[in-house]
Amino acid sequence: xxxNKLYSLPELPYGYKDLExxxxxxxxxxxxxxxxLAYVNGANALLKKMDEARQSNAEIDVKAxxxxxxxNLGGHKLHKLFWPTMAPAGxxxxxxxxxxxxxxxxxxxxxxxxxxxxxxxxxxxxxxSGWAALTLSxxxxxxxxxxxxxxxxxxxxxFRILMVLxxxxxxxYLDYKNERPKFVDAFWNIVNxxxxxxRFEEVSECSCATI
Length: 211
Ligand code: MN
Hints:
Blueprint: H1 25-55, H2 62-82, H3 99-109, H4 112-125, E1 131-136, E2 143-148, H5 173-176, H6 180-187, H7 193-205
Antiparallel strand pairs: 1-2
The structure holds manganese (II) ion.
């Protein structure tokens, strides 16, 4: 838990030279100390800006602010996952998947080589502020490769949803026609706060990974 309600740049779990020759010290320094830090600072600046606006009840461009926040939080989250994904070659880095991960990859892809090929293609062809990621469906037990084309898809990866409102036209058109704001106003009358609170407590108490 980050106690000051702001984000901070995590230390690398190895030295800046330790990933050489695969990633140089200079590259790793600029990536971690400049690029990752920019996401952390960006997210914190937006949170402070929102705090100030709320305290003085000032106008704020909510859409633009949330889009920018998602870009920065997405970047922070993914980099925070990225650094421990790596280790110095021969000292924890490289080789083959181990344990249950290896079993799952073999069961899903047929072989490590097949997985490696698919993951590499996903990485090479990712667009935008892109990433390739491996994820796991807890429902099916399948490891699934994910291409992330942008940080700012307005989704905070891995964040469990506490409260949601469908604003596609099918959700309100019969009642409100084109007047979505009226539907949104009406929603506040029917929010089940017990449900939202229960979800909040579950996420607070679970050991699931989030930022
Ligand atoms: Mn990066």
